[in-house]
């Protein structure tokens, strides 16, 4: 019996060692491929657009691909450390650095953050991005505002007060259709009548603008929401509902408008305490660590760690989405560019983590009502993230959905989710103090 147990443990350890070795070899090969693709894209960008696009294949403070570091936001803290902090063994070799610098083209590429019309000088989209009408329709919008799905209230309350406003923010690689198709139709008539709903396509996603000269920082996203929703509709008070990545933007927005926000509902929110090292790199290693298994994790790793390899995948899938849609007979609304997805991943999901504690502290002091919803089987953003938010804001209402993952926390249980939202928006509801069946650990 004992030899069998020992043999089984030895076999397990051996298998783990072999798999770890394969994992290292695979990502080492990807490191090399990324370096090759960097030079390939420099050549192709120069050929199709006249000059190479800048990239993050150097460490912060070194010479950029186009000879200089280029224009950066007013506060460099807006950029995530994960952009330059991604380690690449092959890239660090001196012989490769010399080869890359010999191929540097003269002339920096100017990049703009916020403001302006959001369209690059010359070519508004990369040659490797899709140019179908559905993907570039935003270019014709002179005001360059976010695409909105607005559901107006049908009646005015008896006391003459205006209807309450709710802003919905989707997650990474998603769009406003998450809310318009799953939440809006399930609202009760009384709530729908007394609330004005705004489902936003975030900057760089869906039908919203996807400027190639933008860093897609938290500030960029907040400014576009202000420009497209808060200012034109003159919102003096509002609720915020968000899912996944949208929660980071929601917390930042609520912190800025803490005197106007009535409640914030965070669904499957990522969170890393800023006290534990660099939260940006911690977020990258945790949410998108270099692992081959499971397959979804491998895909996330490739798209988050390898800028040029990810661009190749986007070229094959996103640029040719009409062909894929025809093949699989499925029309997708997840429209984005590699540039918008790459920078949002790093500057919002990763970079936003170093600011979350400050934002949450502002909301705590302002006594803004925070509702946290999370599935206990979420492998994309584990439950521990929301537990961290609960520890940071003890008064937050914490609702664990048993058996739900990152998507099924909403999908498949739309009515339950909507009933929860309705109670959260109702100041007289017991939801504001206690949720039946909730658990904080």
UniProtKB/TrEMBL annotation:
Keywords, alphabetical: Membrane, Transmembrane, Transmembrane helix
Domain AB hydrolase-1: 166-275
Keyword NAD: no
SUPFAM superfamilies documented for this protein: alpha/beta-Hydrolases (SSF53474)
InterPro entries recorded: AB_hydrolase_1, AB_hydrolase_fold
Transmembrane segments: 21-44
Matches recorded under PANTHER family: HYDROLASE, LYSOPHOSPHOLIPASE BODYGUARD 4-RELATED
Protein name: AB hydrolase-1 domain-containing protein
Species of the source: Trapa incisa
